[in-house]
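FORM 12-B: Structure-to-Sequence Request
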């Protein structure tokens, strides 16, 4: 009887070791930091300024200094049009961004693309981003004066029209207080220099900050 009891006790101990009576705790993965994707062309990529000095880089530093916990991702590619943006859209969505700062269209305008094409492409991008759950901040841009009084007003109207249609937050003009100041622009007259980029980051922050939360 003693042997039988000992054998059963050993079996019970082995079972307890294999299947504990109390649930085991598992490490809780850290909360995912919400992401802000800056999706654009050379103005976003930081063309002509030192690495780490693009407006998304400066935006990240500004958010950190203000106590916001967001990760800014620079997805700017120099030379891209809205059609190129459509081709990269799945990659942007795969980041599951909370906010997307959409800055595309300038290269369409510089190439003289029909306004309807640019507006249609941007509309498709916006719809896909919103369907994926992202808030879209649309950055407006304009063209050099030599593009003429017929084309420029139609091009400029794309951005407020889309913002109204899709109820987006709008940066009226990304290069406000920069584009008309030669000392803030590079020699090409199209891209801000380092000091101008700081103003661009301030333009973005002013519009973006009301959308943010401090946890």
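FORM 12-B RESPONSE
SEQUENCE OUT:
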């Amino acid at each position: 009887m003693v042997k039988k009891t000992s054998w059963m006790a050993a079996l019970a101990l082995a079972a307890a070791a294999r299947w504990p009576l109390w649930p085991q705790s598992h490490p809780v993965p850290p909360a995912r930091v919400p992401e802000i994707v800056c999706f654009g062309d050379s103005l976003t990529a930081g063309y002509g300024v030192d690495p780490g000095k693009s407006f998304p880089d400066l935006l990240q530093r500004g958010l950190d200094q203000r106590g916001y916990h967001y990760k800014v991702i620079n997805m700017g590619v120099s030379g891209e049009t809205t059609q190129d943006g459509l081709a990269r859209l799945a990659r942007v969505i795969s980041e599951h961004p909370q906010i997307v700062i959409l800055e595309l269209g300038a290269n369409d305008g510089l190439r003289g693309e029909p306004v309807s094409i640019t507006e249609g492409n941007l509309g498709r991008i916006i719809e896909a981003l919103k369907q994926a759950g992202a808030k879209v901040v649309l950055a407006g841009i304009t063209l050099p004066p030599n593009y003429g009084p017929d084309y420029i007003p139609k091009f400029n109207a794309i951005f407020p029209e889309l913002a109204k249609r899709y109820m987006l937050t709008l940066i009226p003009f990304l290069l406000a207080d920069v584009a008309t100041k030669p000392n803030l622009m590079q020699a090409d007259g199209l891209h801000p220099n380092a000091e101008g980029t700081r103003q661009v980051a301030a333009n973005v922050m002013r519009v973006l900050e009301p959308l943010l939360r401090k946890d």
